[in-house]
Amino acid sequence: MKPILLQGHERSITQIKYNREGDLLFTVAKDTVANVWYSVNGERLGTYNGHTGAVWCVDCDCILNPRKTLEPCRPWLCKQLAMLNTSSAVRTCGFDFSGNIIMFSTDKQMGYQCYLNYFDLRDPQQIEDNQPYLTVPCAESKITSAVWGPLGEFVIAGHENGEINQFSAKSGEILKKVKEHSKQINDIQTSVDLTMVITASKDCSSKLFDSTTLDHIKTFKTERPVNSAAISPIMDHVVMGGGQEAMEVTTTSTRIGKFEARFFHAAYEEEFGRVKGHFGPINCVAFHPDGKSYSSGGEDGYTRIHYFDPQYFDFELEA
């Protein structure tokens, strides 16, 4: 599993995302730059410049045009198409399944509360006036991670207090609410068919939920905070990344800090593999759409693409 090392950021990676075909990998970091890479060889295709602060999230519209990307909050098509102004930093963003609706949430900071905003790209007036067709205030606890649910009917959001909410994309009302985590949810990702979501939390665990009912299915426990988790598109596997808190990294060796990517069996909840490489906590992980590789971005500013044979990891536990 010799990784391909991507060096295109000067500060820690905040999110990585494949497009639908898997030929492109988008990376964003705290250094104001967004990069796009060829996933097959790690060659950098280009850089999106324009931000003046940390870029926390990125998404790619794979339905209408595989070269359209969304950063907080600037839609691009090789060049900047539009810019949406917000009062505070944008924490999460994403295209719905059709590619027509975008959502993004803002941070609770500088006296402003957290909002979840929805824009319809088919209405140019919304973009021109910088007015979303729906704004949902989140006064109790800010959104730290969010993804679209099946068919674009709602957004599944993880909060700072450990709650998971379903927000309707039509009315903004909370359709369902659960709280299985005791601390902040750092990441939420969906399965390839959007039937399940996996969370990563500061409470040292990752949990699997039904995306429609939010029923808790499985729990994967570790000894360190989990920053990100992803579901394999072809196997019953999940990969998790995290490690010791960044403020304590300078006093800890890589072995003690547990900076490995950790593989768990989705059904048995058992860990069966670890992959080393990063020199600090892993901030984000993502499986390639074909399931034969995964990428990880770390606090060290590097992104690593690991290729492997998923059958090598297939196993069954004795009853």
Automatic annotation (TrEMBL):
Predominant location category: cytoplasm
Biological function: Component of the eukaryotic translation initiation factor 3 (eIF-3) complex, which is involved in protein synthesis of a specialized repertoire of mRNAs and, together with other initiation factors, stimulates binding of mRNA and methionyl-tRNAi to the 40S ribosome. The eIF-3 complex specifically targets and initiates translation of a subset of mRNAs involved in cell proliferation.
One GO biological process term: formation of cytoplasmic translation initiation complex
Highest taxon listed in the record's lineage: Eukaryota
PANTHER family for this protein: EUKARYOTIC TRANSLATION INITIATION FACTOR 3 SUBUNIT I (PTHR19877)
Protein name: Eukaryotic translation initiation factor 3 subunit I
GO molecular function, one term: translation initiation factor activity
Biological source species: Esox lucius (Northern pike)
Encoding gene per record: EIF3I
Record text on subunit structure and interactions: Component of the eukaryotic translation initiation factor 3 (eIF-3) complex, which is composed of 13 subunits: EIF3A, EIF3B, EIF3C, EIF3D, EIF3E, EIF3F, EIF3G, EIF3H, EIF3I, EIF3J, EIF3K, EIF3L and EIF3M.
UniProt keywords, alphabetically: Cytoplasm, Initiation factor, Protein biosynthesis, Repeat, WD repeat
Residue ranges of WD repeats: 6-47, 275-305
HAMAP family linked: eIF3i
Any Pfam family: EIF3I
Compartment list: Cytoplasm
Family per record: Belongs to the WD repeat STRAP family.
